[in-house]
C-alpha cells in the first residue's frame, strides 16, 4: 500500500504539470492574450511631491508602452487613501478621467500641469522620504505596482531630454 | 517630452496670434509689438489691467486692501485653492523657487498674493499653513465668495462657484499669475505652466521696466505688505 502510494504521487504531480503547460499553450495560441503583454508596459519616474495641504496630494509617473497595441490605464490606487482619481487639467478646472490610453510604442506622462493622480485625504502626513505605493490597473492586462518616493514640495524631475 | 514640446509650440502660437490681434487693433508697427512678446516669457499687456480694488481678509484675520497694501511693489496675484492637487501648489512652488533665485533687494520689491477661490474650506488658518509650505512671506486672502469672484472677473478670470459634481468637489482656479506694477496696473500675465527660471528672467526685466512708486519702492509711505 505504502509503496504504491509513493509511486503514484510523482505521477499525479507530473500529470498536473503537463495539464498546466498544455492549458497555458492553448491559452496563448488561441490568441486570448493577443499581442498585448503587461511586460510591454513600463512605469517609471513615479513620485509624489510633498503636499502642502493635509487633505490632498498628487502623484506623477510616466507609462511607456513598447507593444504593438494601445494599453488602457483604467485607474490608479494607492496604499495611503481609498480615494484617488486620474485627472486632466482643462483650462481652469480639472476633469476626472475614467481611462487614459497609452498608444502603441508611445508614452503618457503624468506631470505637473497636465495629467495627475489626485490622492484625497491621505491616511498619513506625507513627508519627504516617505513612500507611496501606486497600483496602476490596465484593461485586460492587469496591474503594475510601483513605489513613488515623496519628494520635496514643488519638486520637478530633471528633464530627460532638452 | 513630445507633449511638452507640443505645449510649447501651442504657447508660442498663442503668443503669435495674440501679437497679430494686437497689431490689428493698433494698426501700427507690428515689429514693436513683437518686441515685448520676445522680451518676456509671459504676455505683456499693452493695455494694462486695473488691479482689483478689493479688501479681503489676510491669514492673520485682518482686513487687507489689495491696492493700498501692495502699493509701490511689484505684486503677483494668483487665484487658486488649497485643495487643488496640481496646478495651484505647482504654481506657488515655482513662484517661491523663482523668488529664492532673486537677490534680496529684488525680492524685497515683490509681493505674492494668493486669493482663494474656495473660501468655505480655505479659512485664514488653512491658507496660512498651506502657503507656509512654499514661502511664509506670501500673502493669503480669503473672504466672501461673491467679492472674490467679482475681483477675479475684473481681471478676466472666470470662476464657477465651488460645487459638488458627481461626488467630486469642483473648484476653479486661475490659469495665470498677473503681475501688477506699483501703481496697480497689470502689466504681464504668466500662464500657470511658467517655469521658475522664466519667472526669474521676467521678474528681473519687469523690475527694471515698470513703475513701482514715486518714492523708494517698498520703503515707508503707504504701509508695505504685512
Automatic annotation (TrEMBL), chain A:
Kindly list the residue ranges recorded as spanning the membrane: 12-29
**InterPro entries cross-referenced by the UniProt entry:** LpqE-like, Lxx211020-like, PCuAC_sf
The record's keywords, sorted A to Z, are: Membrane, Transmembrane, Transmembrane helix
Q: Which superkingdom does the taxonomy of this entry point to?
A: Bacteria
Could you confirm whether the keyword Cell inner membrane appears in this record? no
Annotated PANTHER family: BLR7088 PROTEIN, COPPER CHAPERONE PCU(A)C
Q: What is this protein called?
A: Copper chaperone PCu(A)C
What is the organism lineage in this UniProt record? Answer: Bacteria, Bacillati, Actinomycetota, Actinomycetes, Streptosporangiales
